[in-house]
């Protein structure tokens, strides 16, 4: 580590800025925001440093900047000269301001642009509402200390408050409601550390950067991650290293764990006081049985929350430039499954064809021939544009365009066995070329 990181308290202290121009003004402004009494002067003379806690130089004649640096260092006053690392006794980091929370990033002068790029990432990751959460924590600081005198227990309680439902409320802007949960925890200190929560989280189609920011945050906070086959390793790696990971399987016709057992597992983990993330491919409420898990949790009195994800149809369509709706070609999208428990296909083909628009058929690859037969018999024109999309929304996505007849004939050899979705409808013919393979 090239520099020692620290945050300075300069409320009511004198600060000196030498220079004239935008950069000097910005520095003066930042010092004022931190509560300093700022004296700004275009040129330097040593007496200006009297009583100063900090000094910054920018856009002043070189001899002034040199003299400022030399004198300040001699007198033990921290000094920074903008863009002149050799004249500085401290450097200023790139910051993400979520006051009272401040995140500072420095590359020690090695790669300031990299530090700024990183800052942009953190800006996106740490919602502005963290400021509200930090303010809330500050408001309750003394009460929390009184309610949880033991430090270890206090830390655990705060972790729960700052990551649990109270935090979710504060982060979505509902400070008053969040404050009530803080109050409740303080009034009943012994309930707080025992209550678990289960998040039913959509992991999207597979690419880690198609997770929502909320899903990513919850993953990083989970004690246990319960996942199935569709969730990729890259996404699982985003969890804490010490978090438990439980695979509950479910490949077609190869159910690792029965749904009832998964429900019971989630309930048990919740009762143990764990923060559980139940990760499901795509969206938890679309052919994901998230509804059943939510029911089981509600019945057992375990708090839960559902976090949406990008469902396969959306990932596949975007990845193959297919407009799911189109002003001229499709006014509806139907998410439909081609699979039933015993492997047969049960579908209201007439209804589907009559509604028109785009059909997104999940779990349809095994039943593809019967899907084709049923749709054509119900009046779907045989030349209707269709696409079979494997591993949609990931880097390994592959797309096969053609009529349903063509897909049926080609799919067995073409498929590499990844999850695949069938899109059918005139809008598929409006795919914007570039990815056709
Ligand atoms: N809840 C999931 C769907 C689960 S059902 C979602 O919202 O996407 C499983 C089916 O989803 C698979 O058989 C396949 O048809 C489809 N599927 C899931 N991920 C996919 C992907 N990356 N590419 C194509 N199809 C996918």
From TrEMBL:
Pathway: Porphyrin-containing compound metabolism; siroheme biosynthesis; precorrin-2 from uroporphyrinogen III: step 1/1; Porphyrin-containing compound metabolism; siroheme biosynthesis; sirohydrochlorin from precorrin-2: step 1/1. Residues 198-407 form the Tetrapyrrole methylase domain. The active site is at 228 (proton acceptor), 250 (proton donor). Transmembrane segments: none annotated. Residues 98-124 form the Siroheme synthase central domain. SUPFAM superfamilies: NAD(P)-binding Rossmann-fold domains, Siroheme synthase middle domains-like, Tetrapyrrole methylase. GO terms for biological process: cobalamin biosynthetic process; methylation; siroheme biosynthetic process. It comes from the Bacteria. It catalyses: precorrin-2 + NAD(+) = sirohydrochlorin + NADH + 2 H(+). GO terms for molecular function: NAD binding; precorrin-2 dehydrogenase activity; sirohydrochlorin ferrochelatase activity; uroporphyrin-III C-methyltransferase activity. Keywords: Cobalamin biosynthesis, Lyase, Methyltransferase, Multifunctional enzyme, NAD, Oxidoreductase, Porphyrin biosynthesis, S-adenosyl-L-methionine, Transferase. PROSITE patterns: SUMT_1, SUMT_2. Its EC number is 1.3.1.76, 2.1.1.107, 4.99.1.4. Residues 129-186 form the Sirohaem synthase dimerisation domain. Belongs to the precorrin methyltransferase family. This is Sirohydrochlorin ferrochelatase. It comes from Granulibacter bethesdensis (strain ATCC BAA-1260 / CGDNIH1).
């Amino acid at each position: 580590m090239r520099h020692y990181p620290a945050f300075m308290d300069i409320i009511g202290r004198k600060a000196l800025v030498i220079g004239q121009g935008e950069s000097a003004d910005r520095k003066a402004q930042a010092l004022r925001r931190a509560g300093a009494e700022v004296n700004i002067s275009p040129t330097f003379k040593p007496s200006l440093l009297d009583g100063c806690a900090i000094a910054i130089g920018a856009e002043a004649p070189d001899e002034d900047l040199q003299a400022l640096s030399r004198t300040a260092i001699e007198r033990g006053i921290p000094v920074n000269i903008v863009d002149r690392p050799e004249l500085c006794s401290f450097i200023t980091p790139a910051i993400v301001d979520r006051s009272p929370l401040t995140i500072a990033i420095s590359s020690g002068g090695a790669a300031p642009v990299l530090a700024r790029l990183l800052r942009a990432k953190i800006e996106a990751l740490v919602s502005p509402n963290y400021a509200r959460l930090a303010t809330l924590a500050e408001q309750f600081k003394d009460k929390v200390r009184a309610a949880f005198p033991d430090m270890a227990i206090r830390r655990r309680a705060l972790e729960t408050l700052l990551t649990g439902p109270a935090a979710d409320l504060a982060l979505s802007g509902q400070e008053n409601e969040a404050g009530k949960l803080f109050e409740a925890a303080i009034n009943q200190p012994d309930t707080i550390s025992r209550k678990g929560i289960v998040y039913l989280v959509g992991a999207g189609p597979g690419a880690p950067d198609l997770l929502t920011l909320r899903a990513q945050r919850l993953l990083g906070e989970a004690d246990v991650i319960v996942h199935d086959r569709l969730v990729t390793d890259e996404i699982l790696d985003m969890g804490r290293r010490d978090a438990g990971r439980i695979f509950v399987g479910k490949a077609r016709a190869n159910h690792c764990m029965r749904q009832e057992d998964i429900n019971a597992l989630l309930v048990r983990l919740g009762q143990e006081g764990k923060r559980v993330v139940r990760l499901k491919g795509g969206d938890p409420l679309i052919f994901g049985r998230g509804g059943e898990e939510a029911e089981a949790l509600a019945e057992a009195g375990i708090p839960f929350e559902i976090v949406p994800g990008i469902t396969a149809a959306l990932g596949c369509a975007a990845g193959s430039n297919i407009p799911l709706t189109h002003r001229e070609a499709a006014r509806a999208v139907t998410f439909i499954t081609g699979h039933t428990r015993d492997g047969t296909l049960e579908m209201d083909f007439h209804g589907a064809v009559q509604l028109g628009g785009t059909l997104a058929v999940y779990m349809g690859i095994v039943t593809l021939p019967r899907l084709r037969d049923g749709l054509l018999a119900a009046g779907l024109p045989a030349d209707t544009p269709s696409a079979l999309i494997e591993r949609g929304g990931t880097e390994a996505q592959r797309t096969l365009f053609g009529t349903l007849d063509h897909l049926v004939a080609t799919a067995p050899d073409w498929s590499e066995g990844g999850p695949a979705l069938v899109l059918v409808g005139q809008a598929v013919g409006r795919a914007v070329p570039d990815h056709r393979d």
